[in-house]
Specification:
By secondary structure, this protein is of the alpha/beta class. It has 15 helices and 13 strands. The protein starts with a helix and ends in a 5-residue tail after the last helix.
């Protein structure tokens, strides 16, 4: 039998390795995430036709201001296809009025949702079908675009011979705890994505951001298409995986100053907003896996503290080393996503806020027998059957 001391040492060693690898991988992924301003560009003699597809469900409060930033773009061959996905708050009327005022804007109204489709994925699918551009930008209804971003994005994708260019927008967390939670969310995303494998055509790069996925139509047509993602809650990342499986080249960059989105207006609204997808994206729609993740994080979280206070020698030094790595990673992360340094040093709180959001998401999925999104309830069995991202 193992002694108590041996078990404690094994626990601390596992905890230190877990947190150390998490922060090292986070630094590694941030290193491989380019800055949009640093991407090479070309200057084409003729610009390819670009279709921007915007999916909107009950976005009356945000969509007009966001669309105005798209309509103000100087891209020469631009069409905007806005899909009104069964809205009942006046979104459709706003879109129709803007369409009458702007020739570049077309509106597609979705009145019914087919079986076994998520509303957003179906709306994007309908928008792609109604569009004609050589390049297609899939985006959300609350994203604000700086003038020139479309020209630069298409130019950068062409210069790098990319089939998919995905951009991370500036977020606008509204208060301290909202920023803490956002930082915790980004840490989780850095564990899920594979920025370092974008050049590896043998790997499936699960990279994509719903706010800005610019894809070459010919490559998209060669894949299984958005129908394959019909009930994938992480459709943006699954799109990257699908393009990668086809042998397409993917580029990802953080677009400071070029794109902006108010990612929920408070911490409570963030918890409600992530309710629909956290259980599937993190827990794989498995209650046992979700419980295991939570228990593992709890056990691992306490290890460095015990090692620093109650142990001596190498274990104590290693524990302090992990705390130092935590501070380094937090500082680098805060700088890259433009948060105050204090939010980089409060990542531990952000981790636990995200654990709470995960457990909340799992609870409501269990209570309802599925997820609620856009006025629809999607059964958990269907979501499991159609999940494309391996969690």
């Amino acid at each position: 039998m193992f002694s108590t001391t041996t078990l404690i040492q094994a626990w601390i060693l596992l905890a230190l390795l877990s947190w150390g690898l998490l922060y090292l991988n986070g630094l590694f992924q941030l290193h491989h995430l380019d800055e949009f301003d640093d991407l090479p560009t070309d200057s084409p003699d003729t610009w390819p036709r670009l279709s921007v597809v915007v999916a909107a469900c009950n976005e009356a409060d945000a969509i007009e201001e966001a669309l105005e930033t798209l309509l103000a773009q100087s891209y020469p061959e631009l069409e905007i296809v806005a899909v009104d996905d069964r809205s009942d708050d006046g979104t459709g009327e706003i879109l129709d009025r803007l369409s009458d005022e702007h020739e570049a804007l077309r509106v597609v109204h979705v009145d019914t949702l087919p079986d076994d489709w998520l509303g957003k994925v179906h709306a994007l699918h309908r928008g792609v079908e109604a569009s004609s551009g050589e390049w297609v930008l899939l985006t959300d209804a609350d994203v604000h675009f700086r003038e020139g971003v479309l020209r630069r994005a298409v130019s950068a994708a062409r210069a790098d011979d990319a089939d998919l260019l995905t951009l991370v927008p500036d977020m606008k967390p509204t208060d301290f705890w909202h920023r803490v939670a956002y930082a915790g969310f980004v840490v989780g995303m850095l564990q899920a994505v594979r920025f370092h494998r974008l050049d590896d055509r043998e790997a499936e790069a699960r990279v994509g951001v719903g706010a800005f996925n610019l894809v070459k139509r010919s490559t998209l047509k060669a894949t299984e298409g958005l129908e394959w993602l019909r009930m994938e809650i992480a459709d943006d990342m699954a799109l990257g995986q699908m393009i990668s499986r086809q042998g397409g080249t993917i580029r990802a960059a953080i677009a400071h100053g070029w794109l902006e989105v108010e990612w929920y207006d408070s911490l409570p609204s963030m918890a409600r907003g992530l309710e629909k997808n956290t259980f599937g994206a993190v827990g794989g729609y498995s209650y046992l896996q979700t419980a295991g993740i939570t228990l593992f994080l709890l056990v691992a979280f306490l290890g460095p503290f015990y090692g620093a206070v109650a142990m001596e020698g190498a274990f104590q030094l290693a524990s302090f080393g992990v705390f130092g790595l935590y501070l380094v990673f937090g500082g680098v992360l805060a700088r890259r996503i433009e948060l105050p340094l204090s939010n980089g040093f409060t990542l531990a709180a952000g981790h636990w806020i995200m654990v709470y959001i995960l457990l909340r998401s799992a609870y409501y999925c269990w209570k309802r027998g599925g997820i609620e999104w856009g006025g629809e309830t999607y059964p958990i069995d269907k979501l499991r059957d159609y999940q494309r991202i391996e969690v």
